[in-house]
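Hi support team,

I submitted a single chain yesterday and got back a structure, but I'm not sure I'm reading the token output correctly. Could someone confirm the output below corresponds to the sequence I sent? I've pasted both exactly as they appear in my results page.

Thanks,
R.
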Amino acid sequence: MLDELDIAGDTVVIFTSDNGAEDVLPWRGWTGPWGGSYFTAMEGSLRVPFIARQPGRIPAGRSSNELAHATDIFTTVARAAGAEIPTDRPIDSIDLMPLLQGASEGSGRESVLCFVADRLHAVKWCNWKLHFIWQEYMGDPPIELSIPRAFNLYDDPRERHDVFLPSNTWVQRPVMAAVAEFWDSVAAHPLIPVGAEDPYVPPAAR
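Hi R., thanks for writing in. Yes, this is the structure output for that exact sequence:
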């Protein structure tokens, strides 16, 4: 249809998902090489397809293992459409177009905070994952860990072998820096309250 209308080159098509495979029988899906299920902080929940198409602007056949988040679609699509990004509040969203178009090999994102409901279960930083609350499958009880569990996702994509102790405690430093940056941002710019008017105007901008 886009080709027939001669607008394919002016249209960004993105195919993705908000979470991994369904876990409930009889609809249980397959998470490939990754462990766990959705509604957890496991890779089987977080890893989803992300395919973008725009002939003449996004080269065909490229693939990347760079870290990206669903929130990055906001800035990516807005910039592609020539829209201005709000400056009256922090936007947790990165423009992925330089990566998609081949102008950059990096996404610009180093970390993702993995919340399940309103609790921080884990943090992804580069190729590492640090779990603070362990919940492998959606129906499992979440277990608060006295010592975090660390996984090198390049070596252990199913998150089976905790390597935090004794030699990888250093991962906690960049992870906690990302966590502190997030909570500092929340303190300076409170989250949008439930039931807020739309469009929402931050208090500092009123």
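A quick pointer for reading it: Residues 172-188 form the longest helix (17 residues). Let us know if anything else looks off.

Best,
Support desk
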